[in-house]
What does this fold into?
Amino acid sequence: TEIRSAYSVSQLKEAAGGGGAATGAASAASASSQQAAGGATAATAATGAASAASASPQQAAGGGATGAAGAALRGTLYHRVLERLSPEDGENLEAIQEAIRRVSGEIPETAPIDPEDIARFYRSPLGRRVQEAFRRGKRQTEQPFVMGLPVSRLPGELRTSIAEAAGAAGATSGTPAKQEAEERLPSGSAEELVLVQGIIDLFLEEADGLVLVDYKTDAAREETLRRRYQSQLALYREALERALGKPVKETWIYSFHLGREVFISET
It folds into this structure.
């Protein structure tokens, strides 16, 4: 799961050349989202000023032999394998290896992943629930969304990006960049509407509600993952509830580094 971008309405207006055009652009994005996601959401909107907001927390938190870019590519490899591999083959090491081989050809210069990492996920209690939901036709993957929120409700890294994109960040010596950017936001900006675009890795529809699942490959401990991604996943939870009109009863991270699920929240 990742936040792909966040655009303030004023930035969309500027990019579109006026308020009316911006409203049309936002409406078109919303309409396309309904078609692309079958009721969840997706948006296609671009402004050069907001491009800094498109970096995902996973990329920012990357590491490994080739740095953040290599970590992000490795995360993409896991996501694509999981998207394309049938859960019915989730414990079949030969099928997993074939899926890795096919996907690796699309992502050059990426360190290979161990098929056992994928099999271990499907042997976990959470993986068993994924397989059961798949058999019932109640498993959804790579679900795009767009959601309007005031700047004040965004995770810190996105608030900073919006501030910088709007030209609000300065260069006050000794002040942390995040704090400085937020302090220098123009009056009223905290409640300005922002369109947040992202991708939900996986959700399951169970009898008593939805289960939101996010894959992570960060080399991090359980408490670090919770701290790093809790606010981001709260946005995805809200987006999913708005789109489907059903409660998200549980939110989980599956950590491939730890080889286990990490519970985030429940209703």
